[in-house]
Amino acid sequence: MKTVIALLGAGGKMGVRLAKNLRNSAYEVRHVEVSEVGRERLRQELGVECVAQDAALDGAKVVILAVPDTVIGKVAAAISPQLAPGTMVMTLDAAAPFAGHLPQRDDLVYFVAHPCHPPIFSDALRNADGQPDFFGGGHAPQSIVSALMQGQPADFDLGEDIARTIYAPILRSYRVTVEQMALLEPGLSETVCATLLDVMREAMDEVVSRGVPREAARDFLLGHMTILSAVIFQEIPGAFSDACNKAITFGKPRLMRDDWRKVFDREEIAASIQRIT
Description:
Order of helices and strands: EHEHHEHEHEEHEHHHH
Strand order of the largest sheet: 2-1-3-4-5
Shape: elongated
Oligomer: single chain
Mean pLDDT: 94
Strand content: 5-15%
Number of domains: 3
């Protein structure tokens, strides 16, 4: 007999992802979704019909709460009287459990699982022998920027062709001015990006010093760099959760000075280049 899972919030963003992976698994899944939009999404994408919550919970060994953090406490409290001792209640984020939003029932199993997301150092950047090309100019495609400080139009064409050759394989080639290139480096890539990445590494070391296993902290950070970057830079459609947006609203003034954009002022860029050169 298959272990029964009641998947609450099955038609939401996370719920559908879970439903897809559970579809042909060793588990019997009962899908619960309160919105008609979500129920229709499950029908269209997975051919799944939802069941009433009471029916889904009856005899379920595991209940997965694929619902927003803000309602986990309310949902958990509502279903708690229907859960038999030993039932596992699984959440997909630590926020609500950490805040004490789960019912006080010692006879239930509470389990939290959260994805690390695909790492930013992926196999797509490695060749058939497993050798990485994180810099570019080897086998990993990259874009380039080129500037003709002075000269004739044909001079740019020649220079760009040489640049395409020495940095191949090429994704895209952009023409910028020398001043724009200085904004990109050292301004954007080093003063901002490298600095913040260095802080992120220090932050990772800090959570490790507080007891998180180093490998888990590294995979968690690098994986979240991938998915958070994909959303922030609009590589994929999507939006952060309310919890994430609140964390950003609080975190930015804690980490950044109000006038941080001045690093792109011409005199600041000039001073940075003077220090470098």
